[in-house]
Design a protein that fits this description.
Length: about 240
């Protein structure tokens, strides 16, 4: 009887193991958050009726569609329509999303109409000013350094893909943006172009060109889902 009971327990454990293994691939599909900047009463930069908030929203929708087709990541959007959403709400959304990565989309404006191109910002590393150098401070410093380092690597990978596949020049720059600073995961803020530049305005309003840009960014993200995020080792 004891033997039969242990055989049954072994059989059940085996079945459970098989079931867990079968469920594993779904669990490993990484979640990425796409945040369309501004929205609602805040249109962001506006030139000739072209609104930054609309561009950002369209871009995140294109990104989501492209990545859903590929199936390698689960895209999650902070907003899907033209509505108000505060930075604190966006930050809380990222924190509650189980995401491995955050991308916030914006468009830039400059007093110099000749300035154009894509900028990708990643959170810069700033060492804590806490003089105690306690273990807690050192740990927080290391976490910030790691997030900045990984974000820069991802920013560079997205930049290469955009330059190669969409043919647009990109600058990768460290910065201190609230959303990137608050997020516990690596993230980048992409400025899709300068709406103060006539060339960029044309590029951003041409459906195919914006799709090309979204295609190039999503292809870099899909590659990272395979190489960087698939096993869950990132967390
Ligand atoms: Zn903006």
């Amino acid at each position: 009887m004891l033997l039969r009971a242990s055989a049954l327990a072994f059989f059940l454990a085996f079945c459970l193991g098989v079931a867990l293994q079968a469920a594993a691939p779904e669990k490993s599909i990484p979640i990425v958050v796409f945040d369309a900047g501004h929205g609602g009463k805040d249109p962001g930069a506006v030139v000739n009726d072209l609104r930054e908030s609309d561009l950002a929203l369209e871009f995140t929708h294109l990104l989501r569609e492209a990545l859903l087709r590929g199936g390698g990541v689960t895209p999650s959007l902070t907003r899907t329509q033209n509505k108000d959403i505060s930075l604190a709400e966006r930050s809380a959304f990222v924190a509650g999303s189980q995401a491995v990565f955050l991308l916030s989309a914006h468009a830039d404006i400059s007093p110099d109409p000749s300035v154009s191109g894509v900028r990708i910002y990643y959170p810069h590393y700033q060492r804590s000013k806490d003089a105690s150098r306690s273990l807690k401070t050192l740990k927080a410093d290391l976490t910030r350094y790691e997030k900045s380092y990984q974000s820069r690597q991802i920013a560079r990978q997205i930049a290469s893909s955009v330059e190669l596949k969409a043919g647009v020049p990109v600058k990768v720059v460290p910065a201190d943006f609230y959303l990137l600073r608050q997020a516990s995961v690596p993230g980048v803020l992409i400025e899709l172009g300068f709406i103060s530049s006539e060339a960029d305005r044309l590029r951003l309003t041409e459906d195919a060109a914006l799709s090309d840009l979204a295609g190039a960014v999503s292809s870099a993200i899909a590659d990272m889902a395979e190489s960087r995020w698939k096993t869950g080792a990132h967390r």
